[in-house]
Every structure is written in C-alpha cells, then in structure tokens.
Amino acid sequence: MQVGGSPFGPLDYERCSHVGKWDTARVIEIDDPADPRLDDFRDLSTADRRPDRPGGRGLVIAEGVVVVERLLASPYPVRALLGVRRRVEALGDLPAPAYVTSAEVMAEVVGFHLNRGVLAAADRAPQPTAAELAATSRRLAVLEGVGDHENLGALFRNAAALGVDGVLLGPGCSDPLYRRSVRVSMGHVLRVPFAHLPDLATGLEALRAAGFRIAALTPRADAVPLPEAGLAGGRAAVLLGAEGPGLTDEAIAAADVAVRIPMAEGVDSLNVATAGAIAFYALG
Questions:
Q1: What is the pLDDT of residue 56?
Q2: For the domain that residue 258 is a member of, what is the CATH number?
Q3: What's the pLDDT tens digit per position in 60-75?
Q4: What are phi and psi of 245, to 5 degrees?
Q5: How many domains does the chain have?
Q6: Are residues 86 and 143 located together in one domain of the fold?
Q7: Which of 168, 169, 182, 262 might form a disulfide with 173, Cβ 3.0–4.6 angstroms?
Q8: 26 pLDDT exceeds 70?
Q9: CA dist., res. 215 & res. 83, Å (int)
C-alpha cells in the first residue's frame, strides 16, 4: 500500500482509515486566543509555518473537514486540531488533541476568518527519492519552475484525479505542502507522492534510462500535437513549466518530444494546471 509522500503505491483511503486505530482524543475547550497550546495555528497569514519564512516551522496545515479528513488518513503525523465544535464533531475519531473554540477566537488566533471552521496541523512525513518514485510509477509529472502555490495545488489535484502516479519537482518549484497548495489540491497533495529533482537534466536522463518517454509541453508551433504524440500505454513523463515563461529551452531540448495542445486561433496558452490536466488525460 502506498501513502502520499512514500514510494509504495496510490493511497487507499479505505485501508488507511483511522477509525478503530486511534483512541478518541480528549476535546479541549479553549476561550483564550493567547493559549500556547494553539501556537501551531497562530498567525498563519504571516508566518504560515513555511520553513523558508520567519517563524516558519514547516508544518502541514489542512483546512476544512474534507481536507482535514484526508490529512487524518495520510501518513503525516497529526499534532493537533482547532475548530468550532460542529466541524470537529464531523470528523469522528481523532488522533490528536482537538481544541474547540468560537469562530471569533479562531479568527484571532489564525489571523483571518476561516469559513471552513476547522484546521489540523501535522509534521511532515518522509518522502521517496526520485529514483524510488520512478521505480514504482508508469505515469509521472515533472515540473520546472512552478512557483505559484495555487497552480501547484491544482496540478496535484489533477494528477490524483487522472491517474498520475507521482510528481517530480525540479528547480524553482514551490513547496507543495504549503498551506495554500494543500487547500487548492483539496488535500490530494497528501495522496500523490512527490520527490525533488535538484538537477533536471540528470533527472530526465535517469527517467529515460528507466524506460520513460519524456514529453515537454510547450505552445511552440513546431511541437507535435498532443493527440498525435502517442503517449498512452507506455511509461511516460509530462514535463511542465511555470505559467508565463513555460519550460526553459534546455528542458525542452532534454525531452524526447515537444508536444503542444491544439487551441483555437487567437489563444496562445492555457493555465499550467489546465494544460497539465489535458496532458495527464492523454497519458491514460
């Protein structure tokens, strides 16, 4: 069985169910926004717990019942939950302390009003290496310079929906476990395993040696139309670049084929997550 962030296969939510495996945690009422037990959730709009930001601790933050449920079913060790009572009660058995408070206190702690009514904080789980991920995959997304957290989250959501086995993060990519990425992915970034690829050229060569055909997605007129690229059926990796600049010339040159999505006249490009979804579908 594979869980997100590990090399053992797609996450099986039924087999990973927490019901009956964790003791129900004591639900703790808190009415003081300065209570130190809430520090994991404090000032998310500024520090946001990113490791590269002042005060950042690199925690995984899930928002809303659906995303929190996916965090609870993942291998990421949950530290605590914070929410209004009805949202916390919707979660059933809990693996960690659940701090129940009012929406007003919650907003003061978090730094903004949270419509979804519940948060969970978790530590990070071990990630596979790129080689481990490639060894257990047939369809991969390889990203270069995707720095927008919402695009990154949407790409992970699309990858989960369309059967992509994993994501390789090349140079310039943002942290997929940043709060906004987790939220936009609807928690699927916790399901789709990912690995880092510090040197793109070396990584692509290793994928090729492992039997992957690498397709670079680009709007260039001389690229092969996606329906004619023959990507379905074999081991394939789709290479996607940042929205705006797209892939570097070096990345396109390192691919086996440059592929474009045919578009109507007057439209020169698509959002990177949308383009990725179309390409992922073609892999299947």
A1: 63
A2: 3.40.1280.10
A3: 999 999 999 999 999 9
A4: -75, -25
A5: 2
A6: no
A7: 169
A8: yes
A9: 44
